[in-house]
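Question (not urgent): is this output format expected?
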Amino acid sequence: MTIVVAYADTPPGHAAVTGAVAESREGETVVIVPAVRGERIPEVGEVESRWPDLAGRVVVERGDLGDAADTVIQVAQRLDARLIVLGLRARTPVGKLVFGSTAQRILLDATCPVLSVKPAVTAT
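Got this back:
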């Protein structure tokens, strides 16, 4: 089986990978897909060094669609993913209306279960 991670190099994106590690089963492949158009996607070695539990079972997909939500959904469908994991960030209702939401589109259009996670809150 496969878990697809909607990844961005942000605290919510890092929380998504951490969530995928926690949800993954032994030997299960975790596929990292860009959640932001034009986002720099880390190389496999970078992912494995940051999340050692993924060593030997992580794949990075760059995607060829212009829309990040469509890319994540397409990769999940093509791989018959068991789960999509994505990170959420706080947005105002007006911000969602004006700019749309990749996470919302993935949640509504995915054909497999979606786990949404938030980054841990740090005390200051």
